[in-house]
Design brief:
mainly beta; 24-stranded antiparallel beta barrel; disordered N terminus; single chain; two-stranded antiparallel ribbon; 68% strand
């Protein structure tokens, strides 16, 4: 309190904002899961002090870690062209072949660095340097070594339609640091040096981004050749209402746990964790008339897994159109996984079709109907497992105040099951949000941000409350 009074007397302008989120999962089997996230920021004219505290606990028989805590804090000072950050920083170098830190809520993935970062942006130049201890969490559990060190930076220059830059990263791995890790390769005490060059051009109908990266020190205890490399290219051309985009990517012994997920394969997951893979993707998107949008996409990424061929390939099409106050969308997706061990999918083929319709019914209320049908073939043993999942969603909403949806899920084929749940959401002014789910939901693979995790089958009540202040 005394410090606040001194700041006020000295003439500083103080502001405060934050939120508190509480989430509860209660299973019919008896175990529970609680998650609480407290986030707050105090800021003035040129500085910010922020912190985030995450705490979750479960019953002892739950299929999650019993309890865990995560604390993030940041002190930022930004006078003029300078920005200094201490505590939790989220640096990104180039597109992310060297480093990408950030949070992905879908897969409950969080990557950041405990340390310091300084940025200087005079005119067309941008200079960035950082150092600290990296953290990578999935479902709030640490996935990589808690004693690793990262240090690096980049220089970037922009003029007109052109941006060019160079980046450097030093990764230091400490012995016995990777205790609770997803890495499958043993670790030694070592240093790995990374370097990258990148450039971006966008003018008129043309856009090009190119990045190349090199790495030294790739697991010297296991491999004679410790030099790795990677490259990424995006080339796009727009003519009228249509845009054609091409992506090319190669990763050879560039693997480390803090890269941006690849762009050309499904789910944003690596085929071989960045060890040996190359891929290409082609996307065409545009408008058919004034009310209809079409997207076509095809991609393939391939590599090696235990001296066997590995690949992910996908073909996708989506159509969305509006007529007066009605909106209709249609999509079809076909994908195949072979030895994609980084995603935990070794022999899977699936085809998915989806259709949806949104329309007003009375006043400010709207109707949302959606059907999805997915056929899968998994083969982990001698006999393949074939099944189909059909999802029906009946929803009504009053934007942005309330949403209510009934979801029916049914599985047929070599394995059968049925799940029914009710979802409700209320937006109570600018300060309160309330979300409720009651019923059954099937187990499913959730992939996003470069990682995959299985969300277990749910049967019970889920509640989430968000308070903003």
């Amino acid at each position: 309190m005394i410090a606040w009074l001194l700041l006020a007397v000295a003439g500083f302008n103080l502001y405060f904002t934050g939120s508190n989120r509480y989430e509860y999962w209660g299973y019919r089997d008896g175990y529970t899961w609680h998650l609480e996230t407290l986030q707050a920021d105090v800021f003035g004219d040129a500085w910010t002090l922020g912190w985030t505290y995450v705490y979750y606990r479960t019953a002892e028989n739950a299929p999650f870690p019993a309890r865990n805590q995560l604390l993030k804090y940041t002190l930022e000072w930004a006078p003029g062209a300078w920005t200094l950050r201490l505590g939790t920083v989220e640096p990104a170098l180039g597109r992310g072949l060297l480093l990408y830190a950030g949070e992905e809520e879908t897969a409950l993935l969080d990557r950041f660095v405990y340390g310091a970062q300084v940025e200087f942006a005079p005119g067309a130049w941008n200079f960035l340097a950082f150092a600290g201890v990296p953290r990578s969490y999935v479902f709030y559990a640490p996935q990589h070594g808690l004693q690793d060190r990262l240090a690096g930076g980049q220089v970037q220059y922009s003029r007109g339609a052109v941006t060019v830059g160079t980046a450097y990263l030093l990764e230091t791995t400490v012995p016995n640091a990777r205790e609770a890790t997803l890495d499958l390769i043993p670790q030694d005490s070592r240093r790995s040096h990374f370097g990258a060059l990148f450039g971006h051009y966008q003018k008129g109908p043309v856009e090009v981004y190119l990045e190349g990266a090199l790495r030294t020190g790739f697991y010297p205890a296991l491999f004679a050749d410790t030099l790795g490399y990677g490259g990424y290219l995006y080339a796009g051309y727009t003519r009228g209402r249509w845009t054609l985009g091409l992506e090319l990517e190669t990763l050879q012994r560039l693997q480390h746990p803090y890269m941006l997920p690849p762009a050309v394969d499904h789910y944003g997951v690596y085929l071989t964790n960045g060890d040996q893979e190359a891929g290409a993707g082609l996307t065409l998107s545009g408008r058919l008339g004034r009310r209809t949008e079409l997207t076509l996409h095809a991609s393939r990424i391939q590599g090696q897994y235990l001296n066997q061929d590995a690949w992910i390939q996908e073909a996708y099409a989506a159509l969305q159109t509006t007529w007066r106050t009605h909106s209709v969308h249609l999509s079809a997706d076909a994908i195949r996984f072979e030895n994609a061990w980084a995603a935990g999918l070794y022999h899977r083929t699936e085809q998915t079709v989806e259709a949806g319709w949104m329309a007003p019914i009375f006043g400010a209320w709207g109707l949302d109907l959606k059907v999805q049908h997915r056929r899968r073939r998994d083969q982990e043993g001698a006999e393949p497992l074939r099944y189909a999942d059909t999802d029906l969603t009946f929803g009504v909403s009053r934007y942005p105040v309330a949403d209510l949806a009934l979801v029916l899920q049914q599985r047929t084929g070599d394995t059968t099951a049925r799940w029914i749940r009710l979802d409700a959401f209320l937006h109570l002014g600018n300060r309160w949000d309330l979300a409720l789910t009651w019923g059954k939901q099937r187990q499913d693979l959730v992939c996003s941000g470069g990682v995959c995790r299985y969300e277990p089958e749910f049967d019970g009540l889920r509640a989430k409350v968000i308070l903003r202040f």
